[in-house]
Amino acid sequence: MATRQQLTDALKHHFGFGTFKGNQEEIILSLLDGHDTFVLMPTGGGKSLCYQLPSLMMEGTAIVISPLIALMKNQVDAMRNFSENDNVAHFLNSSLNKSAIDQVKADITGGKTRLLYVAPESLTKEENIEFLKTINISFYAVDEAHCISEWGHDFRPEYRRIRPIINEIGTRPVIALTATATPKVQHDIQKNLGMQEARVFKSSFNRENLYYEVRPKTANTDRDIIKYIKNREGKSGIIYCLSRKKVEELAELLTVNNIKALPYHAGMDSATRSANQDAFLLEEVDVIVATIAFGMGIDKPDVRFVIHYDIPKSLEGYYQETGRAGRDGGEGQCIAYYAFKDLQRMEKFMQGKPIAEQEIGRQLLMETASYAESSVCRRRSLLYYFGEEYSHDNCANCDNCLNPKKRVEAKDDLCAIIETVTALKEKFKAEHIADVALGKATNDVKSYNHDELEVFGCLEGADDRYVSAVIRQAILAGYLDRDIENYGLIKVTPKGKKFMSKPVSFKIVEDNEFNDEEEEVVVKSGATCAVDPELYSILKDLRKKVAKKHSLPPYVIFQDPSLEAMATTYPITVDELANIPGVGAGKARRYGKDFVDVIRQHVEENEIERPEDLRVRSVANKSKLKISIIQAIDRKIALDELAISKDLEFGELLDEIEAIVYSGTKINIGYFIDDIMDEDRQEDIFEYFKESESDDLNEAIKELGGDYSEEEIRLMRIKFLSELGN
Questions:
Q1: Which of 33, 32, 35 is nearest to 51 (CA)?
Q2: Are the CB atoms for 106 and 145 separated by under 8 Å?
Q3: Backbone torsions φ then ψ of 337, nearest 5 degrees
Q4: Under 8 Å CB-to-CB from 125, ≥6 apart: which residues?
Q5: Which residues does 496 contact at the CB level (< 8 Å), separation at least 6?
Q6: 503, 415 in Cβ contact below 8 A?
Q7: Which of 122, 234, 532, 652 has its CA 20 to 30 A from that of 35?
Q8: Based on the domain organization, do 269 and 340 belong to the same domain?
């Protein structure tokens, strides 16, 4: 078993990163220990690394089962890019001719290949099964594992055959990974892959940098989209449409309006489709207009907006597609256009499918409608759908939270709804419950004689949307539960029963009414910026040139945060460049020379005094006072006491601590802040610095108003800079 230090060393050596993201380290240790491992991690969380790194550390070849040829090529290119040997990774699928397949097999047999990507269809071929039986397999990785489940948004029947084939080839540990899975889908995946005893790692599905908004779909939607994109000139974006026809029309419309855009859908010939995809990745065009066939596994970190021209068929699909925005942690805006008639049209397309499939499809559409029409925090609704609780009332980064509606008391109406659910013996869906409560004698209601119940019409005269909002928000609050496994039947929870015996205040916001009115919404940005913008711009141009030369997307050469670090610390040797986060020795040797030459020239021409390398700075270079302050903070001495003992004003002590942090030393004053400020106050200031383009104190005081003292703001700025900057 590998130690944590060995793991960190391997991460640095192969990928150039000094630390793991989220629970990557625990996941990799679980796999290296030989355990079946189940990973739920949102897009951009670093799923691929969870099998890529162990494959490089273990004996044999890891088999990665992946659904799309484009995705495989993308991942193989990325792996080869991190290594000096091109045969470290291969794929096996229908796009290869016989001699290419023979070469792949020779590299695997020769022990050169650590990662083999296969499509599930290729895995089932007899000759491939026979070949795989003869090689040393380190483990199996099932990527996009939600494809196994009929309840997932991208069900693939061939995924159901994976487990029997693994049993035939030879059992080894299995790691299953997905970016979206409701509790129902998770259970389905584990059961089908025979990994009920797997260690489960579930990351938060909350992507704080993504801004969510739903706009009404009107006759002006095309114009709205053009205006929106023109205000974001040069930024990368994806627009999703449901039909191929709309993809073609919209791409053409954008082009005639001088927006660099191309279409992408499954009906195009594969050469054109690939060329259009590459043009987007290589930043030759800004916008790709696509059906949902586009984007699976496309690792472009700087997509700044994802627009849904048509609302998707399921919230899982929506989450997966919006997840392609802001993967680098920077700005990501997710705009969806919604009209209920679009969902009705999709429901018609289901006719002719088996009844059970129609029911599942209808249930998923209703969840989407609920999300689109709701006035509740978008983030909270999405996270609830994935079985995660979001405790904040206002996320400050979605349309509903930035334009909150007035809340109304609905305690008595919730009592009426709970009584109705109970009278219906918890065997009906939300629509039926609403009809009974509103006193609507529909055919369904009459067929069950529910128009004769005492609760029939208990909310007569109320607005339909209002009653739907009460049910929806009661589910979010935990008073009711929607049983997804039984097509969305509504049940009363223990919390709901307790509420009935002793009702408390229950305030709700009424659902959005979709009309033609448009509101301008202030959108927050999570983008970062470099210390030397001129050098940063030069490096971006160079990256584009190098990428073109190698026929690779620019971000594969170096990602934006790496360029920002270069424009901050000015590395002028390949060894120094290898210490930049996200570079590593392999990339530094492969691409570094051009970059360090340009940086050296820039430094000389502008007579720039380079900061010391942050990695080799040590406390010994600091003054005696600074050393004693750092040591006192390490011992968790209260800062007010520390100021007195050093004969300093509190503000003077903060000056010294700020100088320490700005010089690149990481310190932790959280113990003192926790004593004097509650969590919400801390979070407000921390969020401000996170989203602000500047750490200027006067701007912060002006922006945060009279709610916080200068000292509180300075303390939180120190915490922020130390945690995120050093």
A1: 32
A2: no
A3: -100, 130
A4: none
A5: 418, 474, 478, 479, 480
A6: yes
A7: 122
A8: yes
Region at 329 (left for phi over 0; alpha for psi -120 to 50; beta for the rest): left
In the structure encoding, which two tokens stand for residue 187, read together?
A: 């259970």
Q: Which two tokens stand for residue 47?
A: 């799923």
Q: How many CA atoms lie within 13 A of 711 on its CB side?
A: 11
* CATH classification of the domain holding 462: 1.10.10.10
Instruction: Tell me the CA distances in angstroms from 359 to 31, 191, 192, 356, 363, one per residue in order.
Output: 38, 22, 22, 5, 6
pLDDT of residue 12: 87
Cα dihedral across residues 298, 299, 305, 308: positive or negative: positive
Range of the domain at 333: 210-354
**Which residue, among 601, 602, 566, has the nearest Cα to 587 in the 3D structure?**
566
Residues 452 and 422 in one domain: yes
How far is Cα 241 from Cα 359, in angstroms, rounded to an integer? Answer: 24
Kindly state whether residues 180 and 145 are assigned to the same domain.
yes
Rounded Cα distance, 299 and 396, in Å: 27
* 321 neighbors 292 (Cβ within 8 angstroms): yes
- Per the domain annotation, does 130 fall within a domain? yes
Residues 626 and 670 in one domain: yes
Are 158 and 11 in the same domain?
A: yes
Task: Take residue 560 and report the two structure tokens written for it.
Answer: 């934006």
Around Cβ 603, how many Cβ atoms within 10 Å? 17
Let me know: does 178 contact 142? Beta carbons within 8 Å.
no
Query: CA 568, 611, 719: angle at the middle one, nearest 5?
Result: 70
| Structure-token pair, residue 34 | 């030989």
- Region of residue 664 (left: phi > 0; alpha: psi -120 to 50; beta: else): left
- Is 377 part of a structural domain of the chain? no
Identify the CATH number of the domain in which residue 676 sits.
1.10.10.1390
The residue whose two tokens read 């971000």 is 555
Amino acid, single-letter form, for residue 498: K
Q: Give yes or no for a contact between 335 and 305, defined as CB atoms under 8 angstroms apart.
A: yes
**Which spans in 146-194 are helix H?**
162-169, 183-192
3-state SS assignment for residue 482: strand
Dist. CA 281–CA 283, nearest whole Å: 5
C-beta separation of 274 from 70 below 8 A:
yes
- Are 20 and 167 in the same domain? yes
CA nearest to 358, candidates 243, 487, 483 = 487
Verify that 189 and 58 share a domain, yes or no: yes
Residue 368 maps to a domain = no
For 609-654, the pLDDT digits (tens) are 775 433 322 223 345 677 788 888 988 888 988 888 887 888 889 9
* Overall size of the chain counted in residues: 726
Q: Contact at 8 Å (CB) between 281 and 295?
A: no
Residues in a beta bridge with 263: 289
Average pLDDT over every residue of 576-580: 82
User: Residue 308 is inside which H or E element, if any?
Assistant: strand 303-308
Out of 615, 644, 679, pick the residue that ends a domain: 615
CA dihedral 498→500→504→510, nearest 10 degrees, is 120
CATH of the domain at 245: 3.40.50.300
Please write the tens of the pLDDT for every residue from 164-201: 999 999 999 999 998 877 788 888 899 999 998 999 99
The CATH number assigned to the domain holding 546 equals: 1.10.150.80
Instruction: Tell me, yes or no, whether 518 lies in a domain.
Output: no
Pick the closest to residue 663 from 605, 608, 602, 622 (CA basis). Answer: 622
- What interhelical angle do 315-322 and 355-373 show, nearest 10? 60
Q: How far is residue 34's CA from residue 700's CA, in Å, rounded to a whole number?
A: 50
Last residue of a domain, one of 177, 202, 227: 202
Q: What is the pLDDT of residue 582?
A: 67
- If asked whether residues 88 and 150 sit together in one domain, one would say yes
Which is nearest to 665 in space by CA: 718, 710, 607, 592?
Answer: 718
Tell me the backbone φ, ψ of residue 127, rounded to 5 degrees: -65, -35
**What H or E segment, with its residue span, contains residue 27?**
helix 24-32
Domain count along the chain: 5
